[in-house]
Design the sequence.
């Protein structure tokens, strides 16, 4: 079977993607629209004036190539700019338009967020553009947006309006949209901490060239331990996406099976859609036949080998903690007892360490430092189980958000050494 064939009907794909965007609070009940252009030139699009939080497949409208409309509702009032983009860019097959808060903030400041915060965001978002304002639903707005896409732009901020992105499929357009909003949110948060650090071409290329070289093998029958760990990884990866601790294009989660083997999320797979069969078993220099392990697999392996007590690892990009990663602001977890007990002292890993030397990266985490900030690349969190690791990730992000919020109120007062010593004694911390 051709792996590039999409077997999901446009009605279902639009319905499912809009549901996801709405659940992620990246649009409102009345805002935003999605479309797909099929091989016959028909444009499938979300309807006008229908609750985005309760779309059904029957609500999706088909505007046929001859201009006739098939559906229970009229097409979105923004149909003119969808049509104009498709005419200007034959390579684009799907469009996402919405009003996510961070990108709207940029649109009303008449700016475009710089995606050079992270290699993945810069790669996924493609060429950025800005389209001048015109009345929503007007032919002029369609002309303005199409002209920007005609210049080769893939992600376009609409002046005082929102954002439009295009892709070769609705899945790719959604990933682009999500990565763009993630970059925007991170910039907003980071600007409250200090000067933001962007990546020059050399560092972006360093990340792009990263690869994982494993031989393939057919493992023995799965044990109940492996089966349970696969279930847990899928459960918590999906939860992480829904709680915005992970994004669909970035992040990896693994769990130790034994001294030489671990399970890890695959590369090039939407994180929220990962199933048990997608998880990759890695043993020594081998990875499960027919699957591609995350590009961070060697880094996970180095941490397991250096720290026998570590049973699970997550590389993630929660917005607030990641904001610290793109600035030089110190991330001090001595805020409330829970933060210190769970995280202890969070170290900062210089950019590129994870690409140059996995063994050096492994030295930045330990029993007394279970989490670390990766410069311009999110965070690493380790734990004694999948649940423990996820719990620490939540605490890390909550702490980062509290600190950023506190800075808008007044000076952050961290707990003194006497309190830290008391916590170490009470909780038997090394």
Sequence:
């Amino acid at each position: 079977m051709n792996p590039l064939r999409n077997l999901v009907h446009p009605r279902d794909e639009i319905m499912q993607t809009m549901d996801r965007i709405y659940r992620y609070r990246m649009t409102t009940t009345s805002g935003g629209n999605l479309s797909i252009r099929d091989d016959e030139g028909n444009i499938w699009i979300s309807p006008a004036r229908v609750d985005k939080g309760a779309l059904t497949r029957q609500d999706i409208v088909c505007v046929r190539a001859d201009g006739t409309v098939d559906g229970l509702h009229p097409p979105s009032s923004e149909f003119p700019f969808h049509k104009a983009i498709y005419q200007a860019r034959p390579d684009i097959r799907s469009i996402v338009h919405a009003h996510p808060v961070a990108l709207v903030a940029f649109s009303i400041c008449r700016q475009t967020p710089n995606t050079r915060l992270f290699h993945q965001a810069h790669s996924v978002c493609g060429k950025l553009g800005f389209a001048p304002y015109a009345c929503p639903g007007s032919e002029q707005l369609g002309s303005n947006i199409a002209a920007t896409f005609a210049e080769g732009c893939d992600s376009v901020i609409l002046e005082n309006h929102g954002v439009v992105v295009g892709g070769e499929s609705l899945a790719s357009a959604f990933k682009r949209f999500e990565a763009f909003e993630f970059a925007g949110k991170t910039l907003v948060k980071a600007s409250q901490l200090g000067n933001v650090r962007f990546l020059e071409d050399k560092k972006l290329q360093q990340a792009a060239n990263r690869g994982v070289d494993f031989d393939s093998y057919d493992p023995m029958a799965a044990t109940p331990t492996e089966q349970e760990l696969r279930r847990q990884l899928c459960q918590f990866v999906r939860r992480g996406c829904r709680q915005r601790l992970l994004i669909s294009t970035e992040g990896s989660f693994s769990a130790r099976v034994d001294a030489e083997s671990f399970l890890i999320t695959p590369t090039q797979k939407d994180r929220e859609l990962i199933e048990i069969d997608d998880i990759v078993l890695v043993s020594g220099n081998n990875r499960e036949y027919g699957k591609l392990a995350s590009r961070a697999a060697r880094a996970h392996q180095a941490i397991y080998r250096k720290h026998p007590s570590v049973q699970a690892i997550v590389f993630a990009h929660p917005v607030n903690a990641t904001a610290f990663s793109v600035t030089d602001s110190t991330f001090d977890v001595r805020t409330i007892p829970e933060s210190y007990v769970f995280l202890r002292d969070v170290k900062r890993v210089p950019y590129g360490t994870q690409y140059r030397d996995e063994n050096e990266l492994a030295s930045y985490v330990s029993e007394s430092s279970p989490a670390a900030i990766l410069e311009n690349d999110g965070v690493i969190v380790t734990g004694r189980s999948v649940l423990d690791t996820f719990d620490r990730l939540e605490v890390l992000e909550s702490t980062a958000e509290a600190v950023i919020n506190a800075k808008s109120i007044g000076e952050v007062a961290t707990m003194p050494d006497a309190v830290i010593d008391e916590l170490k004694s009470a909780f038997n911390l090394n």
